[in-house]
Amino acid sequence: MPEPQWHTVATTAELPAGGRKLVSIEGKSIGLFNVHGEIVAVLDVCPHELAPVCRGRVSGTTLPSAPGEYCWGREGEILACPWHGWEFDLTTGRCLVDEKLRLRRYPVEVVGDEVRVAL
Amino acid sequence: MAAQPFIVDSDIHNVVAGKSIQHRLAEPHRSRFASGNRGPGHLGYWNPNGVMRADTKLPDGRKIENQPETLVEHVLEPYGISYGILNPGGMGLGLCPDADYANALLAAENAAIAEEWLTVDRRLKGSILVNPNDPEAAAAEIHRWGDHPDFVQVLLPSGARMGYGQRYFNPIYAAACDHGLPVAIHPGTEGVGLSGAPTAAGYPSTYFEWHTDLAGSYLAHLVSLVAEGTFQRFPALRFILVEGGVSWLPPILWRLDKNWKALRLSTPWLERPPSETVCEHVFLTTQPIEEPPRREQLHQLLAMFPAERMLLFSSDFPHWDGDTPDFAARQLPEALRARVLGQSAAELYGLPGVVHA
User: Fold this and answer.
1) Which of B180, B254, B282, B350 has the maximum number of C-beta atoms within 10 A of its C-beta?
2) pLDDT for position B2
3) Which residue among B28, B55, B322 places its CB closest to the CB of A72?
4) What is the mean pLDDT of residues B113-142?
5) Interface test with A, best of B55, B58, B287 (most A CBs within 10 A)
6) Mind listing the pLDDT tens digit for each residue in B155-210?
7) Following DSSP, what letter does each residue of B135-166 receive, concatenated?
8) How many other CB atoms sit within 10 Å of the CB of residue A13?
9) CATH code of the domain occupying B58-349
């Protein structure tokens, strides 16, 4: 395995809290998200039907609750695919409806005001 | 001077600003309210992701689905699709209680399709939108467009006042057969306007429930068409169940045949097991193809009816539950792929195999 290469792809100013930026690294479309101050990088491919998942809504979601009750939480942590609405936890990459599915995540480091992604 | 009378007005209509309500709501109701909650036919059913896919806006601000040129460039060409059948919004207008208004809108939309879409690229084929609740007007609209080379089917909403086998609809089928056009139904209007409730158990609560129940509407129409003898009255009629699901079909065919053996006396025009008639006259589209836990389970289902003849690929672009051709192909057994992806539809619609845009 070759060593991963670090790529500088954004500045911290481009990714304020709740922000998003789509970048291309080595021909791959990758989404950067600032989730509560932590920047995460995920491949822009949904594991379901290969949709550009990073173009979807980022919001919270309804947490498990009793019938007829709604409990909203995880605000800013959930990415919903723009095609079929499957929800993914940006903090882990896991799909909320199928624990076997997850988004491909890449290491991120912030050096000064530069956001770097390892591929 | 008379004393000022004591007055109480018992009916004044004030208006409370939406924003005053919105910020008092908890999620997910707040997002639903803010979205305008445009559910099917404004019934109030809410798809939290929106019914239309969120990623079809091009950098120039246009949406892919809004122009023929962009549909060809961004849907047909990237996936190597030779032809696309257009089933535009508005197909359910016939559920408007005012038939004259509905007929006028449907005629205008058909003209717009003919003049602004079918002229642009011959890979795009049209559906004649008609009003099922005014069958004579529907037949006239079919005759108006029936010999146009690029209208390839008649389209009805599957939300309906009664089963599509009822003789009330016969003028539509007669007109379609006059022009050799198949008749298709498409979901989305169950419970809307003049249609019956979305299910035999009334109105479901959520979009999730409503959408899952759509198969029930299809089942009712299919059994109606069979039992009423529609295919005996119209031997040339071909009927397409668009977006109604696939996996429910085999057990219904078995149930039809079993009941026919005992009850044939009440439908003497059914001279053969009904499943045989269905398999000759009826077609289904793939999307949203069921995704069972193991793919071989879908393959087993597809072996229970002549899928190589009846099943047609469909993407449903740009709706939230669409399937791309490559995804659909991966779900299918290899022996079915060529037939389902294109050959069966080319035969049904009379589409030549070689395309010149």
Assistant:
1) B282
2) 79
3) B28
4) 98
5) B55
6) 999 999 999 999 999 999 999 999 999 999 999 999 999 999 999 999 999 999 99
7) HHHHHHHHHHHTT-TTEEEEEEES--SS-TTS
8) 9
9) 3.20.20.140
B165 within 8 A of B193, measured Cβ to Cβ: no
pLDDT at residue A3, as a whole number: 85
Q: Do A83 and B53 touch (CB under 8 A)?
A: yes
User: Can you give the residue ranges of every domain in chain B?
Assistant: 17-46, 58-349
Portion 309-348 of B in contact with A at CB < 8 A? 320-324, 326-327
| Cis preceding-peptide flag for B235 (omega within 30 of 0) | no
- Interchain contact, B29 vs A70, CB within 8 Å: yes
pLDDT tens string A3-55? 889 999 999 999 999 999 999 999 999 999 999 999 999 999 999 999 999 99
B136-156 pLDDT, tens digit per residue, is 999 999 999 999 999 999 999
CA distance A67 to chain B (A): 12
| Residues in B touching A72 (Cβ below 8 Å) | 26-28
Where are the domains positioned within chain A? 6-118
> In chain A, what is the straight-line distance between the N-terminal and C-terminal CA atoms, in Å?
12
Q: Categorize the per-residue pLDDT at B357 as very low, low, confident or very high, splitting at 50, 70 and 90.
A: very low
A-chain residues near B75 (CB < 8 A):
none
> What is chain B's alpha carbon radius of gyration, rounded to the nearest angstrom?
23
- Residue whose C-alpha is closest to residue B48's, from B76, B27, B22: B27
The answer to whether residues A117 and A106 touch, using CB atoms and an 8 Å cutoff, is: yes
Cα angle, residue B148 at apex, residues B63 and B345 outer, rounded to 5°: 70
Q: In angstroms, what CA-CA distances link B118 with A84, B72, B126, B153, B315?
A: 29, 12, 7, 14, 19
Q: How many CB atoms lie within 10 A of CB B19?
A: 9
Average pLDDT, chain B: 95
| Residues B62/B68/B70/B74 CA torsion (nearest 10 deg) | 140
Q: Do A57 and B323 touch (CB under 8 A)?
A: no
Contacts of A50 in chain B (CB under 8 A): 324, 326-327
| Confidence at residue B354, expressed as pLDDT on a 0 to 100 scale | 52
Which chain B residue shows the shortest CA-CA distance from A53? B55
* B293-351 per-position pLDDT tens digit: 999 999 999 999 999 999 999 999 999 999 999 999 999 999 999 999 999 999 999 99
Is A70 strand, coil or helix? coil
Considering only the beta carbons, identify the residue of B27, B31, B320 that sits closest to A85: B320
Instruction: Report d(CA B118, CA B151) in Å as an integer.
Output: 8
Which CATH architecture best describes the domain A6-118?
A: 3-layer Sandwich (2.102)
**Residue B133 CB contacts under 8 Å (≥ 6 apart), including other chains:** B94, B95, B99, B102, B161, B194
